[in-house]
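This entry is listed below:
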Amino acid sequence: MIKMKREELLKKIDEQLVFELQSGYEYKQMASEFNDMDWDGFEHFMEMQAHEEYEHAEYFRKWLQEVGYKIEYKTIEAPKADYDKDVLSIFKAALEHEKEVTRRIRELFDAAHEIKFYEVYTLLQKFIDEQIEEEATFDNIITKLERTENSNAGLAILDHEMAQRQ
């Protein structure tokens, strides 16, 4: 296996910065879907999730600048806009998205380890820890949604719970 060079890894981290922005955009679309379905709490939850992704991008940006890397912002693709009008399926899509984020972060960590780029460990460990929490949160919400069996009363209770996120 050919080792990735430091500059290549920095470019991959730059790509992750853009992916975090893309993730925020995805969650904005999910929030819009919930708005269309009149689920204010689920909408709020996804708006907060989008905000968190933008914070992650900012964290990557600052780190890259601190190590002297010139950031190259790339085009952000339009998010998926053809979700089923179903709360559960949207949360399942969000979980799959978080699993992709996890895969990408782990790939960066593995590459950093391989080339002994120790300065990036703290940055990436923060996001590995974050991803454990993210996946657990979405998994928990999905479990609760499955228990409701799509009943309006159960969904209304969960919608209220999601509105409490800060």
User: Anything to note?
Assistant: The chain has a mean pLDDT of 94. The chain has one domain: 6-163. The first helix runs from residue 6 to 36.
